[in-house]
Amino acid sequence: MSSFAPKTYAWGKFLNCPPDTYFLLLDFLPFREELVEPFVFCARLAELHLMSLSPTGMFGFPITTYHGPNEQNVEWNSDWEVAANGPWPTYQWKFEQLISHCVSRILKPLQSEGRLLLPSLIHGDLWEGNTGTHCASGKPIVFDAAAMYAHNEFGLGMWQREIVRFGSTYTEHYLRNYPPSEPVEQGMIGTGYTQ
Question: How far apart are the first and last CA of the chain?
């Protein structure tokens, strides 16, 4: 999967450089800014999710990651419901309402009745603006990740928003390569997915 994202060489914080300034050194990958072809892209994404193994066997990530300017909850936890529920300080006031009304009803069934969820390495901010087609290979690439080990379907949620051009076609292609978690009827509402 090394050709799916730029290779990272170094990262860190500059010394004695107020305000706090950071650097990230990656491979330069020339790419076309076009909507990636769904068949190959979704197959590669599903392959990443199926092949990646959390080093702890839990949900989370070994270092703090960010979704834009917002710090993500990446504390290690074996329970996806707990891991997905925060803390998310930036959104806490609204998130508490969401948690109390529906999150447990959606997430708890994924790990009940003997069901096992394996954490997958996910991009965390996957939309068309963070993808492209490599100029030399013609293969889809991803960049600008907010990575973490999470439920593989976690990253597909934003594809359901009207402003994101990865819609039901992309979700359907992805789910052909990595079938949805049980209970299917509860988790895939509104995605356009049919078995």
Answer: 28
